[in-house]
Amino acid sequence: MTELLNNREYKKEQLKRLLLRIHEGGESVEKLKDEFRQVLSGISPPLEIPLIEQELVKEGISAKDIAKMCDLHVELFREAVKGTDELEERDLPDGHPLKTLYLENKEIMKDAEMLNLYARTLATTKDERMRKEILGVLEEIVSNLRKVGFTHYNREEMLTFPPYIERRGLTAIATVLWTKHDEIRFMIKYLAELLRKREEMPWDEFVERFKNKAGEAAFALSDMVFRENNIYYPTLKALLSEGEWKAIRMQEDEYGYYKVNPPEWDPGEDVKPLHPWEINPPELSVEQLLGLPKEVQEALKGQPPLEFDKSELKREGDIDLGTGYLNIEELRAIFEALPVDVTFIDKDDRVRFFSPPGERIFGRSLSVLGRPVQLCHPPKSVHIVNKILRAFKEGRKKEATFWIRLGPKYVYIRYVPPLFNEKGEYIGTLEMTMDIAPYKEIKGEKRLLDWRD
Amino acid sequence: MTELLNNREYKKEQLKRLLLRIHEGGESVEKLKDEFRQVLSGISPPLEIPLIEQELVKEGISAKDIAKMCDLHVELFREAVKGTDELEERDLPDGHPLKTLYLENKEIMKDAEMLNLYARTLATTKDERMRKEILGVLEEIVSNLRKVGFTHYNREEMLTFPPYIERRGLTAIATVLWTKHDEIRFMIKYLAELLRKREEMPWDEFVERFKNKAGEAAFALSDMVFRENNIYYPTLKALLSEGEWKAIRMQEDEYGYYKVNPPEWDPGEDVKPLHPWEINPPELSVEQLLGLPKEVQEALKGQPPLEFDKSELKREGDIDLGTGYLNIEELRAIFEALPVDVTFIDKDDRVRFFSPPGERIFGRSLSVLGRPVQLCHPPKSVHIVNKILRAFKEGRKKEATFWIRLGPKYVYIRYVPPLFNEKGEYIGTLEMTMDIAPYKEIKGEKRLLDWRD
Fold this sequence. Notes:
2 copies of one chain form a homodimer. Chain A is an alpha+beta fold and 453 residues long. In chain A, 56% of the residues lie in helices and 9% in strands. Chain A has helices at residues 2-24, 29-42, 49-58, 63-89, 97-124, 128-166, 171-196, 203-239, 242-252, 286-291, 294-300, 328-337, 382-393, 437-441, and strands at 319-320, 325-326, 341-346, 351-354, 400-406, 409-415, 419-420, 426-435. In chain A, the strands form 2 sheets. In chain A, strands 3, 4, 5, 6, 7 and 8 form a 6-stranded antiparallel sheet that branches. In chain A, strands 1-2 form a two-stranded antiparallel ribbon. In chain A, a hairpin with a 5-residue loop joins strand 7 and strand 8 (426-435). In chain A, helix 1 (2-24) packs across helix 3 (49-58), helix 4 (63-89) runs antiparallel to helix 5 (97-124) and helix 6 packs antiparallel against helix 7.
């Protein structure tokens, strides 16, 4: 990738000159835009802008000027990004997961850019009111950017890594990207903290630190967009079949998006959604290999052969739960391990299941199975049980919750929610009982990385 | 039952005279014991003793004398009970659930008797130190008697009511007994509260109230023993088959016992445990009907025909979970309704199941299935995940728990317990995630009877 990097150095120089001309004024905006567009068309996207602008500041341009430049800059930038990304998106239909990723990256680029510009403007603004305004904008930008990790990155890590990267043995790319994602998450979190704690340090110290860290974060964000757009997405494009994209589309909404709202997309009813564990055989075809971006092909050369993941998810006799496959043994063990005691009564009010007695709060025994729930309660409270069930069945109530002290235990009982099937028919009610006393003692935080062997 | 009652009146007169003779002294203890035994042999058990003793108090016998009488009295009483109960137990092997019930009733009778005697002694004791001692004894008795509800009564309600009473349509007996059980539970709870709050009222008021309430509770307890021994247990004996008793014995330990510790009992390997829902047809045979106690036969006369419960528990395609039968639809609905997000990784560290996305705290999508758990974590924390799993597999740790703040949520994550199958082999690890913030807000109590439509 050295060549690519040198190309970027060259482009940077061109961009710098262009920005200076914008700053000096006097030239037609349209003409400048055209040149801007041309400079950017070769590389995608212009991740160097923050660095160039930092150089401009060093060359004596006042922050006020830079702030003035902001609008045009961002507009030019948008067009530039649009110009280059069109190359990558043009064959993709709306709602296609890959198109969504590209579109999000545009938004990320824009916000990274804004972050950097405002941070630097803040550093040179003397006016108190102006500072406050800029801080407000920065808080919003940073709070937005935190969502990149929850949505865009998370979707990549959870939806696109597993289908092809891991299953097809290309685990290294995933690890590198994820590590960098986490670095960026950390950077943005740090910015948020810095903003929150700004009263705790002298203004100059805060603003200097913030400006530097914002610059680093903006650069890292743009750099990631560049890597994704130029290496990762083309790889996905080369490898994933329509069925895989369909499966991904079906799951995307669970994670959400960064500033885009993709429409439904379906490659056709005849295309079966293909989940990672169904990709069999996972070996790369010659065609797929040759379709990979040059960088990835290069990286694969001289490496040990890829270890394909051929494990089968569904075993004989497994129960298909819709969100996984379990055998009876595992299912029982799960119910036994739950911190909630479960009892299920069916639509005829009969006890149909209870979780196995591990350390149950209220004992249950097999003799209760098939028993009408009304006969499982002290006669004096049966009328309440009936009232609750009636309210559930008629849809008037969505839960009934109780809590009582029982020795050292604080027992929390929840009847919720009335369960309905896909047709909306009532299929039963779930009783969940747990001891919440231990949760009331929990304080502070204990994180995975705090774990000691 | 009028005849029975008159017989009891007569016996009461005899007992009263006997107790007076004990009080007057001068006669051989052994001779008195013999007569006591004879008087009691006709009826079982001597539930009238508290009443008789109350009459003695009215006839001017000092509480001190009654206290002196206590020991002999209780001893005689024990023998008497033993004499009569032997009739009911003699055919039953040790560990047979019915024998256990009879044995517990003896203990209950004894403690009810003690409660009454000590309460009345307390009422007439002037000595401060003596009062304290008696109060200590009473606290212990009352605290013991509270367990009658959790063990003896609870086992009857949960284990013996359903198999024959309800399934065979004899629901009225169950309802009557359960209502009376609850009255007794309430009486004993009241006594416990009275003891706890005794400083809040004048001594005379407390002791008078306590004496009366203790007398009522003791009488109710004895009365229940009488009903059970003479009506309920013979009915069970007439109806339940060996298979049913075997099934009951297998579940008894879940509820516990009142002051007895029954050994294992098994009618034989060839006897299949018979659960309530397996009793088919549930109609009473002529032989069973004729074997019922006279009181029950009388009660059944002139009643509408019994409504037998013929519902089938296991439906076609149901999954046998060991503690119930569910179809896939119900199983999925249960996992969706749980207040805990579940993810299961199998013995090879692969994600095999996650609970369906209702309001999951951390999103999960199908693409995660079959994925090695190490690839589902940010690269920087993978080494910790591996450490935890190693500690689980080697049996060095039984849980790993974490908690973090996430906006308004207080997220509690528990990896527990490492799951093992019946052979003790590691089959996987369960991740459970829940928001405990709502539990931290819970205060006071909200009971079933507080529910409003």
